[in-house]
Amino acid sequence: MKYLYIGLTIGLVFLFNGLQASAQLGDTDELTSEKDSLQQKVKVAFRSVDENDLLGGVSFIDVDKMTEKAYTSTSLAFVGNLIGGVNGNIWGMDDMLVVVDGMVRDANNVLPTEIDQVSILKGPSAVVLYGSRAAKGVIQITTKRGEIGEPKVQIRVNTGIHVPKSYPKYLGAAEYMSLHNEASVNDGNDPIHSIEDIYWTSTGNNPYRYPDLDMYSSEYLRDYFNQTEAIAEITGGNERVKYYTSTGYAREGSLLKVGNTEDNYTNRLFVRGNIDIDVAEFIKVQADANATFYNLSNAQANWWGNAATLRPDRVAPLIPLDYLEENDIPSWNTINTSNNIIDGKYFLGATQLNPTNPVSDAYAAGTEDFVSRQFQFNTRFDLDLKSLLDGLHMRTKYGIDYAATYSKSFSNEYATFDPQWTNYTGEDMIASVVQYGNDKKATNEVVSNSSYRYTYNVSSQFDYSRTFNNSHNVFGMVVGNIWQRQLSGQYHRLTNVNLGLQASYNYQHKYYLDFSAALPYSTKLPEGNRLGFSPTVTLGWRPVKEDFFDNNVFDELMLTVSGGIISHDMDIVDPNNPENEYYLYKTVLQRGGWYSWADLGGEAATEFQRGNNPDMTFVKRKELNVGLRGAIMNHLLTFNFNYFMGKMDGALARAYSEYPIYFTQVGYPTSSIIPLINYNIDDRTGFDFSMYLNKKVSEVDLTLGVTGTYFETEAAQRDENFQYDYQSRVGRPVNSLWGLENLGFFNDAEDLANSPTQQFGETRLGDIKYKDQNSDGVIDEKDEVYLGRWDTPLRLGLNFTAKWRNFTLFAMADGFFGGKGMKNSDYYWVSGDDKYSEIVRNRWTEATKATATYPRLTTGSGANNFRYSDFWMYDTDRVNLSQVQLTYDLPETVLQGSFVNGVSLYVSGYNLLTISKEREHLEMNVGNAPQTRLFNIGLKGTF
């Protein structure tokens, strides 16, 4: 069946590209051309409404208009900046739902050039009709559709360069070896590296005998890499059929230039087609298709991961053949067996500890391609049932997605050689070589890591919309929708089943009342509790419609109040194993113990791991929000403000305090019949806003936008058994960081002897000293305190547009404030034989103890120093200059008489600047490819 879908998708796509005449009648329903409306239509759940009639926490972005002045390749690039309420999530909730053309899909499979509008549904009344899986907000993407008129072709070409922002800074081999010796001596052991080895390494005279490998050097990395894409859009139609198609190709290179990595690339080929057909006066049909082909080709070398871990003194990857003596026949015979003599000058170096390395892998290990194929198809039927009842419509949608990924690889085995050095002639020479491994080139391509994802969406609804006496506007909807996703390797399908009801009334577009409700169904819950109820109510008032209101100032003003309870199963998960979502209401019983007779295999006990809970039910999002939006002085200033206050009530927990102590077996084997119950409660309050100032100064049109989101979360109820109140999670932010409070370093023996005993491993001078919060003379987990929030409670956005004649300047900046982070990667937490970064230069020693900012070096585990504490914590506050673009539109007079209707040239930059006290840390990636700035030039032509 899936191949039938795939074939149908591709066939429809190419059919759309071949259409030359199509359109649809302009009327007032959802399938009409919205570009000609006096008021902009905004897509909300299962319908469109006029912008002035929006209720209940909804914001939107006209992406089609935005891309005229600010091109981007990411579908949600503008969302966090141009409107309030979104900061990687919606109103501080995780796991928002993405809906594309009414279907649950991925945002990254849609390009901004294909998007007409993005709507953000935030309030309970806005999301309720989508059901349980939409309880934490919805981002709704609407792609472009055809327009009545002659065929119009738009071609866009972009090319640019990615320039790395920064690289991790690691110590060279000689300095590393010296400090590694220091670490060993600190632990009471002998030095690891000889003075002679350190000296000869520092001279750099022979980096092949005394390696000093820098995997971030220009020897292996380019200064930049290219990204290029081309996109063609075709739209047009007549009164019967209209169409929109888009196709494009993008290719991106790589920073690496060593061996086969020089050919690393990523490419994306896509085709999309949307068609609208007026079959008859009362029947309209939509059919959409999309196909995306994505390839990632790499040499089989984990370059960035190894760059963060491979010590600089471990291996010289390439050894010149010149170091072999001409008459050393045995060594030459060994080397000549290799199939991997690089440029005729080098053989692949190795050591016993490192028989392979990333450089050798890049030349000889082979290649691997990651392949992704995604096919989407959806159709919609719209029946005007005015012959039965004026204003009645029936609409039905069906959509399928099929995504498959797999890897193709040629994995080679290869030989490396460990040179045994000598200096008997006064010069370093190779006396002999030791071979590791053998050359064996792969002849068969291996396909592995195959996975698939299949999703289908179905919805059907009856709409009733009428206006009586030019004053009473009535809308009603009954909608049923289901979507289900099957992932390879998973037994249970992710399912959302929902029946929704909406009844709306407004009087003269002045007073509004909306009741929206849903009946979600969940198989995660026990029989009898699988059907939920989600009621919401919204009131709205537009004072500008009142006779007493002074319209000389306000062009628009709308006040809304909305409240509701959304029942959902998104948080019906095992708190100790979030991957486990089903049968959590069931008892878990297993064999256990340690001793038995005969054939029981050492298990002589019966263990209860969980009890039964037939009363388990939905988690409830209970919320009240107030909204105010408007415009003043002929839209000189537009504004939108939303306040929300609510809670997530009923997340699962094992509430030991709610049950007698004998429900749990103390000792071995452990056993408990305490079930998971709806217990945890999280409170959430906050606000979002957006304000736009629009002003024309002489010939310059100026727009300044300021947006923001702020929220607080609090664990309102938890089942806890902390001995000390300062460790209680209740009343603390949900996204809290916990750890020890540091008091600096142990600087002398008396300080060490007189301080509380620290239980995290051996403690010496130069180790971090912690505060004894409970004054019990011991530092342990009981001394951990609240340190801050790891999320970002405040996000601000700033965007600016200046248009003068044919020039348009756009700039966008984002600010993030109030969050904390922990420097806990291997770049900072250095122990054992780890690679050393420059951070260790300011380590503690007897000579530097007055100014040291890093604990003593150790070849042990460093368990005392390297644990969550405020010593490693930092502020994540920052301002990012996200995008700047200058666009020039060729004057129409230049193009008169040609087949070209418009040409735009633009230059743009992305991720240009970060302003932060922790800029170096925030811009640095460890173990991954570096962050980059993108400098782009583009051309758009319309024909």
Automatic annotation (TrEMBL):
Tree of life domain: Bacteria
TonB-dependent receptor plug domain: residues covered: 87-138
UniProt keyword terms in alphabetical order: Signal
InterPro entries reported in the protein's UniProt record: Plug_dom, Plug_dom_sf, TonB-dep_OMP_SusC/RagA
Residues of the signal peptide: 1-23
Name of the featured protein: TonB-linked SusC/RagA family outer membrane protein
